[in-house]
Design brief:
The protein is mostly beta strands. About 10% of the residues lie in helices and about 30% in strands. The strands form 5 sheets. It has a 6-stranded antiparallel barrel.
Length: about 300
């Protein structure tokens, strides 16, 4: 044990541009009360048996019982302002349209190959309702409206937004952010047979069919246990983690929960057929949602081709 000092003196040096300034001396009892509450780490307390007339400087801050102590360098308080660019929505490869899913069917190509396709129809709409520019909104985008409805189906703010441009009541409004909005005008109607042609690749977004609360087998394709041979674990989830270490369940663990009903984008789907008479598109593969679901169709984004690499 360390010997009890007879004349303890506590000095805490404040550093400034003019030099070191010792604070008033404290008694041994006061020093012990400070260190007992961990107000200042013990290593930063200097308890030495020194005459009261001794001048304490940074060079004398040492003790045979304590490791060498250096005063911390206090940095001036500064206010940092972030100069990083704001997070923004990704650019589209081109303006797109909205459509309605009708169902699926088989399409026979000229070679006889059977291709599963999703039939997509169009209701009244796909009208440019607003053009946003760098000067007015800080970014360039084209707002498109789709599916005509009655006036009483919309709120007054929605009606006022459309009446400002003299546009019919439309249920859905979506934006397509572009590099340039030159060539677009308000009330302009977008035709799908002018924007796309057979063989083009498109990105299709929509809301998937909601399945409700499902188990691990249906939601994450887990395997079940044995149904015979005395097994009592058939469709249960099983272990979800270790015991003492880490003593918790990791975030992102695949478990039972709500399945479906989320927005999904399926990329680079091929347009197989465009029928102007029936006013439909046939897109290869399955699209999100059930028949009657709203879809967003835009040109497929290919980095280096229609999207800049940076």
């Amino acid at each position: 044990m360390h010997p009890t000092p007879s004349f303890p003196i506590l000095h805490w040096i404040r550093k400034s541009q003019s030099g070191a300034f010792p604070l008033p001396s404290l008694s041994h009892q006061s020093a012990m009360s400070l260190s007992s509450f961990s107000t200042i780490p013990t290593a930063k307390l200097l308890l030495k048996t020194l005459p009261t007339s001794t001048t304490i400087t940074p060079l004398t801050l040492h003790s045979p019982f304590l490791p060498p102590f250096r005063l911390p360098k206090h940095k001036p308080l500064s206010l940092r302002i972030s100069t990083s660019p704001a997070i923004s929505a990704s650019l589209e490869a081109g303006v797109g349209i909205m459509a309605t899913k009708l169902g699926m069917m088989s399409f026979f190509e000229d070679s006889g190959t059977v291709v599963p396709v999703t039939v997509v129809g169009f209701r009244e709409g796909n009208i440019v309702t607003q053009i946003k520019t760098e000067a007015t909104d800080g970014y360039s985008a084209v707002q498109v409206g789709y599916r005509r409805v009655r006036d009483r189906k919309l709120t007054k703010p929605e009606m006022g937004h459309l009446e400002k441009s003299g546009i019919i009541p439309l249920r859905h409004l979506q934006e397509f952010r572009l590099q340039s909005v030159d060539g677009f005008e308000v009330t302009q109607k977008l035709e799908f047979n002018e924007l796309f042609k057979e063989g083009d690749l498109v990105d299709v977004s929509g809301t998937t069919i909601g399945k409700g609360f499902q188990g691990g087998i249906k939601r994450h394709n887990f395997k079940r246990g044995q149904m015979t041979h005395g097994s009592k674990s058939h469709r249960q989830l099983g272990s979800i983690g270790a015991g003492t270490t880490p003593g918790r369940v990791y975030k992102g663990k695949k478990m039972p929960g709500r399945m479906g009903g989320t927005k999904t984008k399926i990329r680079k789907l091929k347009i197989v057929k465009i029928d102007d008479e029936l006013n439909i598109l046939m897109i290869k593969g399955a699209l999100p949602g059930k028949p009657g679901n709203l879809l967003r169709i835009a040109p497929a984004k290919i980095v280096g081709k229609n999207i800049p690499k940076n």
